[in-house]
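Need tokens for this chain, all 257 residues.
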Amino acid sequence: MFEFGIKDIIDIVLVALMLYYIYRLMKESRSLNVFIGIMVFIVVWLLVSQILEMKLLGSIMDKLVSVGVIALIILFQDEIRKFLYNLGANQRMRSLMRFFSFGGEKKDKTDKESIMPIVMACMSMGKQKVGALIVMERSAPLDDIVETGDVIDAAINQRLIENIFFKNSPLHDGAMIISDKRIRAAGCILPVSHSVHIPKELGLRHRAAMGISQESDAIAIIVSEETGRISVAIKGEYKLRLSAEQLESILTHEMNL
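Here are the structure tokens for all 257 residues:
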């Protein structure tokens, strides 16, 4: 006799949550049709091999499934990496890891000292309508992004930031990477987001900021060359038209999570 207990309910709920998360991930990466095709294939495979028990067709589909797993890993390596990254970057997991760490008060003070030059530089560049793109690294390393630009490895300084993004500077078109409270590199190339939800009035800098915020937990600060307005991209979302106080508050809060 078939028994249906609490363990089975938990199993169904977990599978449903997993499928829903994969569905959202595929929808964001514009691979939704591929996901639907895979689900249809799985349903047909279960129907043929488990319910109808067609041995010949079932064995052929079994082989396709075993080979298809490897093909899916290759085809969706970016999505799989993003899934695993989001799992590791979960707020509760990070809170658990911080439970075993020390020196929180010192970190808060140091972060505020490094944040103010960035805020002041952005305000100054905004008034002069100098375009800028600054990426602040958090838990996810940005070594591959740093390699696309020129290594600087200098202390965070307002004048240095403004000089790098000065219109005649050879590094002003790329992104600046800030890591471990130092300006690590400039002139870096970021992945550009192709999301259709980005407002059309936002330019390439905003799309690049969105791209890096979707692929990592980094904070991307944008100074618009056209309007001088300051925006921030975090976790695939924009915070637009920020004042100095708002920018400082966001950076202080996010860098200390």
